[in-house]
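tmp note - SDR family oxidoreductase
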Amino acid sequence: MDLGLKGRWALVCAASKGLGRGCAEALVGEGVNVVITARGEADLQVTAEALRMLNAAAEVRAVAGDIATEAGRAAALAACPQVDILVNNAGGPPPGDFRDWGREQWLAAVEANMLAPIELMKATVDAMAERGFGRVVNITSGAVKAPIDTLGLSNGARSGLTGFVAGLARQPRLAGANVTINNLLPGAFDTDRLRSNFSAAAAKAGVPVDELAARRRAAIPAQRFGTAAEFGAVCAMLCSVHAGYLTGQNVLLDGGSYPGTF
Ligand code: NAP
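out:
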């Protein structure tokens, strides 16, 4: 199926690795020009080069910076001639116990996983509406539907974003102008983030990391972790011209892990 996205411009945040990179790859594969960001310049440039090899017809720009800061967001936006597609993403907050977190840790989580995406939507969605096309995909977490005890910072900050998006996506001036805003909720995907969370959990439980990973894998109905390519493919589908009636949704991508009927 042609997703109808050739020649569009996308800003894909936090995309030198993992899920963000998977989204950038899928969009570039569809002929979308992309601006990708990450804090580390070296990895970002390597990813940009790989994306250019994927589809010579798509333009790829790389902007190093912290998307949780105003300067990082301004630089990313300045590099994108127009934002038709916005994929919001940032690193997840560290695991831990809420008894050990102070105001500083909470503010960092809220800046990265709630306010940064809100600021980027504020900067882009009205112009999308004027042009009659826009797609926003916020990478959040399955923890929004089923909280993960050790990821309290993530549970809290992302739930704030989710509540805000539920209202914004339903504004007639956006939904009525072919601007959709959805959240894509990863379960367990095989990325650096998952591996580092496993290392921390294995150390805490006093078990080898491979054993812990095997247990987690066995607990997923699909019996495996997801891949960044699978995640990117669903992101591109949500961005497609065919998905104009799908807005304000929380799309869970977790191999069947969430146990509820709805
Ligand atoms: P990852 O493999 O660690 O990749 C994170 C990417 O984001 C890297 O490119 C990183 O590059 C960039 N990044 C991190 N913080 C940034 C910032 N402040 N500004 C700009 N770029 C930043 O992580 P992932 O697994 O793809 O996870 C992506 C998001 O999904 C995270 O929020 C994570 O918590 C969430 N999530 C992941 C899973 C999973 O199973 N993988 C499950 C649920 C939720 P630099 O470090 O160079 O900046």
